[in-house]
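Final report, section 2: Outcomes. Of the targets proposed, Dephospho-CoA kinase domain-containing protein is the one most frequently requested by collaborating groups, and we therefore present its record in full.
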Amino acid sequence: MFIVGLTGGIATGKSTVAAMLRDLGVDVIDADQVAREVVEPGTRAWNKIRRYFGEDVILADGRINRPLLGSIIFADSAKRRLLNSITHPEIYTSIGWKCLRLLLTGRQFVVIDLPLLYETRNMLPYMSKVIVVSCTSEQQLQRLIRRDGYTDEEALSRIGVQIPLSEKCAMADIVVDNSRDEEHTRRQVVEVVHKLRGSYAHWKIRAALFGLVATVFGAFAYGCYYIARL
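The predicted structure is given below as tokens.
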């Protein structure tokens, strides 16, 4: 099984493309959903957030007040790094287990929706391919304002903390243009899935795993044989 990263800029349409991939039968792991799961009340990450950020970020039902916590870390880079140090190990571990379960079921590939793939770079070495979803700068700004209710200044600030979309597109293996109508985007996604399903990358990875298992088994068998002769 090989891993495909799905990323882009804020409000460029990653969720739309992820939904289209799922409609085509592709397994998609949503890193944002995993991030919500690892901070559920009572988890290790939740306890650390409560300890370091205080009761103010905990809602009455015990859940994290994500908008408030987001505003805190957006304004303070040190607190942003602290939160990342708490949540990222939990997120990556959970994603790793999800990938392993899919591998054991014989999946050819899995797509991981990672909004900050290029910014954090932690998962980048594991990606065989990276898909970037793009649109025009003006579309990105207006979509973000409509979606989250930001002012122009707030939206531009949030776009500005990410790597420019043009740079992400330059680094990508595949770019999906989401600047036109939905059908235009869907046709591109269908073509991408067709190419991924025609890839032989998973056989290379399986061959490498088989070689590793064979080496370990061979070493174990030789050790048993050597001990038996003593």
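Residues 149 and 155 are 9 Å apart (CA to CA).
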